[in-house]
Fold this protein.
Amino acid sequence: MKTNIVSTIAFVGFVGLGLLAATGGRFLAEPAKRRLTNAFLAFALTVSFAAGLTQHNLWPFSSWPVLAMPMPAATFDLPTPRIVGVDANGNEYDIDYRAWQPLSLEELTSWLNLHFFHLDRASEDRVGKFFLDRANRAREQALAPSGLAYPNRWLGPLTAPTHILHPAIWSRAGRVPRNCFVRLRIYQESWDLEARRLDPAKLTRVLAYEYPLR
């Protein structure tokens, strides 16, 4: 809650000072214009450093921890975990990003890459059971009249998205899987950026984890 308040102050201050620097300067003398511009730049730099040093995202100022990882040399492949639910008939379904609240999908996939795949099998299965339970709970909530909640309950679908846009695929009851998930799978997907630009379906998918094991 405190982070949301600070984030709101940072956003309002950024927009307000930006508008003053862009429009208010027309009516001021040159020294005053310069001071107003400097104040805007100082504010933006201060909040940006605060987000980075505290490792708290203050939207739109981000600490960017989810992108702070080395990439393999001489390749454009980007290994990305993808979690799917599986029903008793073997059908796979993508899971709405809101199922993992309060984590964003970027935070979750970063944790999977950095930590999950280094756990022993027993620890992985404890996490796998938790993921499966969360996915089924979110599916049930999405089928309820109130629907699956957005990160901000007051703004609902108008809630500001994370820096990568994720569709709320379970926003309509007709899109929600009717059958309970009995299994959870995590794939590692990778692709060449140029190849996928030409063909969005061109990717490599490897099953990295399944719970429970068959």
